[in-house]
């Protein structure tokens, strides 16, 4: 169910306005996901602090040179030594390596769970395909006692009808796992962090970070901050982050940025062909500061031939360059920037109306990630043993850190973090029952459970869907009744037409009430006029 909700396209976001969908998302989020999410946010904040502390600390060579100075005063030569930070920081390395091991274990577990779900649904499809071929070739009647609803006569679940194949494997295709978040944020972050951690594992006691290691550390901290901002979108106080990101990557904004880029390249090429002074990089920087940032100094440099241009071509060349620069200033500073601001405002206003639907979709997608990524604790395992395991892992990690076994300490701390998130996500009403005989994961109670939804008196029934209590949909192949299958689009069109007629009837009733009030007011006025004229009926 949640994978289907996470795969919804914007044209189908109306489903997130229904009460049943909102109920299942809020129920699972509040009881299972919210606590592991805050643990992840706190861990990311600690990781950012650790990387920043490592990047700004003094280098080992600088401390060694300053200690050798007489009087303990820092001289000019001492300040110049030790450009990079020290590589020998065991505690910081252990914390950073633990965060890397934690993220990689969650990623591997999520990939394996995703592949297992895909294979399970593919097995169902293959069984249906073989069975449908046998029935088609033999043309024998169905004697299995299965009804067209996908249920047996005794109420037990069974395979779907031959006319409707299982198709849930389409939701678990590899493209659903390789999302843009994975390709843009997580994969580069894990790569930079792994390169930095592996390169500083065997650092000497007085060794400084190399320039390449400093670059990996800075890139890791920047990507970690970006992931932290992206994670904040799931909280109530950060729900507008999704709207801002959708606005930035919308089609209208992308088209406008393409126009701005092409116009900027046209001005740059024109200035370069007119033999403007300076290299291409310097000219590009001056054009950017003058045309897009509104830098007065850069505009003066671009417009003044004695500062920014080579005067060897004479007055005609100077005039042509001045005309090009002035036209570019008018085009960018007056037209382009105002258009960008206007398009951003209109796109944000449009997407802000759908912010609640985007917010619920992102939460549904994160529910899938947490359920697939974190290991599940077996339902029969006592919670006291899990707590004792957490304490034991923390103690072993501390002892290994004091014994200079930093790699083992990092593994223990990472295992404790993953186990803590799994412990916080464990609940008795949604246990993990292991893998069944067919290789499918069995989750939830063995018997059917229900999610009761209460709709208040002020609730709008038009946007509440199937309000009230009802069975939670099964995560197996979705079924629909024969009546729904026969109706199809026609049934939905009739329902929409019926709703339209009901709205029109309500509007006509309001108009009728208003006419009645107006007629009553006219009767009162006529009565008063007749009383003043002292008119009596014959």
Uncertain spans, ≥5 residues at pLDDT below 50?
Answer: 74-82, 140-162, 305-314, 461-487
Number of H- or I-type helical stretches: 18
Structural class: mainly alpha
| Mean pLDDT figure | 75
Strand order of the largest sheet: 1-2
Largest sheet: 2 strands, antiparallel
> Distance between termini?
78 Å
Topology readout:
Layout: H1 2-6, H2 19-56, H3 60-68, H4 76-80, H5 90-138, H6 174-177, H7 180-199, H8 211-232, H9 240-248, H10 251-273, H11 280-292, H12 296-303, H13 305-308, H14 315-352, H15 355-373, H16 383-402, H17 406-425, E1 432-435, E2 441-443, E3 450-451, E4 470-471, H18 482-533
Antiparallel strand pairs: 1-2, 3-4
Report on the structure:
This protein has 538 residues and is mainly alpha-helical. 67% of the residues lie in helices and 2% in strands.
Short description:
This protein has 18 helices and four strands.
List keywords for this structure.
538 residues; mainly alpha; two-stranded antiparallel sheet; extended
């Amino acid at each position: 169910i949640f994978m289907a909700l996470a795969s919804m396209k914007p044209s189908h976001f109306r489903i997130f306005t229904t009460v049943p969908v909102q109920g299942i998302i809020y129920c699972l989020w509040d009881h299972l996901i919210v606590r592991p999410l805050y643990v992840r946010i706190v861990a990311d904040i600690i990781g950012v602090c650790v990387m920043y502390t490592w990047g700004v600390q003094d280098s080992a060579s600088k401390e060694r040179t300053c200690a050798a100075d007489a009087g303990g005063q820092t001289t000019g030569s001492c300040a110049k030594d030790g450009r990079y930070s020290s590589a020998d920081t065991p505690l910081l390395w252990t914390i950073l390596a633990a965060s890397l091991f934690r993220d990689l274990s969650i990623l591997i577990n999520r990939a394996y769970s995703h592949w297992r779900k895909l294979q399970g649904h593919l097995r169902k499809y293959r069984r249906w395909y073989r069975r449908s071929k046998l029935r088609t070739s033999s043309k024998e009647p169905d004697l299995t006692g299965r009804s067209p609803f996908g249920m047996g006569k005794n109420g037990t679940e069974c395979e779907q009808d031959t006319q409707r194949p299982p198709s849930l494997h389409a939701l678990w295709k590899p493209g659903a796992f390789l999302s843009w978040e994975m390709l843009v944020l997580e994969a580069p972050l894990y790569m930079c962090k792994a390169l930095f951690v592996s390169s500083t594992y065997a650092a000497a006691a007085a060794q400084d970070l190399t320039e390449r290691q400093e670059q990996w550390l800075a890139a890791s901290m920047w990507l970690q901050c970006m992931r932290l901002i992206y994670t904040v979108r799931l909280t109530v106080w950060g729900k507008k982050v999704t709207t801002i990101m959708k606005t930035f990557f919308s089609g209208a904004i992308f088209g406008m940025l393409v126009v701005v880029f092409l116009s900027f390249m046209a001005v740059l090429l024109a200035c370069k062909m007119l033999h403007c002074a300076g290299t291409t990089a310097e000219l590009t920087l001056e054009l950017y500061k003058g045309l897009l940032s509104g830098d007065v100094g850069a505009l003066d440099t671009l417009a003044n031939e004695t500062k920014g241009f080579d005067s060897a071509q004479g007055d005609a060349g100077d005039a042509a360059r001045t005309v090009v620069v002035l036209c570019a200033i008018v085009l960018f500073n007056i037209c382009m920037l105002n258009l960008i601001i206007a398009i951003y405002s209109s796109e944000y206003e449009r997407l802000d109306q759908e912010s609640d639907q985007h917010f619920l979709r992102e939460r549904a997608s994160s529910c899938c990630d947490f359920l697939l990524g974190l290991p599940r604790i077996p339902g029969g395992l006592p919670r006291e043993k899990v707590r004792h395991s957490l304490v034991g892992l923390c103690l072993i990690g501390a002892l290994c850190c004091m014994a200079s076994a930093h790699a083992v300490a990092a593994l223990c701390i990472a295992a404790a973090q993953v186990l803590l998130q799994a412990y916080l996500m464990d609940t008795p009403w949604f246990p993990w029952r292991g893998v069944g005989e067919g290789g499918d994961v069995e989750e939830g109670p063995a018997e059917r459970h229900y999610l009761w939804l209460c709709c208040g008196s002020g609730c709008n029934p038009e946007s509440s869907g199937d309000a009230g209590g009802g069975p939670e949909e099964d995560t197996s192949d979705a079924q629909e009744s024969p009546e729904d299958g026969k109706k199809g689009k026609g049934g939905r069109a009739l329902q929409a037409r019926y709703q339209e007629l009901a709205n029109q009837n309500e509007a006509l009733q309001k108009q009728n009430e208003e006419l009645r009030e107006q007629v009553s007011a006219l009767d009162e006025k006529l009565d008063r006029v007749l009383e003043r004229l002292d008119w009596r009926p014959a």
